[in-house]
Amino acid sequence: MPRRVTQPSRSTPPRSAPLSLDVALTAVLASWHSEGLHSEQTVARVGETAARFTARLQASGVATFADVTPADAAGFIDARTRAGASPELATRHARRTAVRMLYRTLRALGQPVGDPTLDLRLPPRGLLAARPLTDDEVMLCRATAQLGWPTAARLRAVVWALGESGAVTSEITTLTVADLDDPAAPTTVRLPGTARHDPRSGDLSPWGARLLARHAADLTSRGATPATPLAYAGAAPRGGAKAQAAACNAIRTVLDRAGFGDDADVRPASLRNWAGRRLYDAGAPLEQVARALGHRSLDACAEDIALTWREDTR
């Protein structure tokens, strides 16, 4: 049974009159560059897709993003390539993610828009139960996780940032201020390991490092000690089943609100698997990726990051 997509509960920014397509796109791109949600390469790639979507709308006579229909969005996502071929499934997913990111930012800027992709379902990318997210999808989820800061949504953003380090959800709830290498300017977090994962040091993403520095500073201003938990405020024992469920639910909520609630192959573990796949794609050998994720088996690591590693030549 498909999961129901939960809509975010947050204050709505003041709505303004719809901007023209070009003006609105310029504002969105400026926002993406200033927010630092991902690398310049990822922002440029998503921006290029958003620009192609805008050009298609202009050619169709659409005046503003508020006028876009679900059929307009579906037409772009399923549009043939320049060579006239049907788009690959990965391309369709990337296009949908870019349009969702575009509309999420438009709403944050106060534009009177919804989301024309809300009911647009795509087949799973593969056969994995929890495929790695893509960089574009992580960018969208970061924007989603930040919504509502500094309200109760803060812990969701903190859990997400720690998940990007390769931590499993049971580890996330045990982490304290002292586990950051430098709470004022963290770059790594000490991960304690579990019964199935080795202890290790997790690298924070630049986005995650900035968010955790801000969070640690706020905790300190409110009297936190080095033993203060970073991402768990419940009464159940940290690292236990109930605490782990809280961290898992936090990641699941971000995924749902980013629009992945009905994607059968996207689960909370997809975030950690992204961290491993990104490290591998950057040139790290599988053994290094396994150590970063705390894996004791290369086969298990390869499966998590969607790699047929025996066919790899590294």
Automatic annotation (TrEMBL):
Which SUPFAM superfamilies would you find in this protein's record?
Answer: DNA breaking-rejoining enzymes
UniProt protein name: Phage integrase family protein
State the organism of origin.
Answer: Geodermatophilus saharensis
Pinpoint the Tyr recombinase domain residues. Answer: 128-314
A Gene Ontology annotation in the biological process aspect, one of them, is: DNA recombination
Which keywords does UniProt give here?
A: DNA recombination
MF terms (GO), sorted A to Z:
DNA binding
Query: This protein's superkingdom?
Result: Bacteria
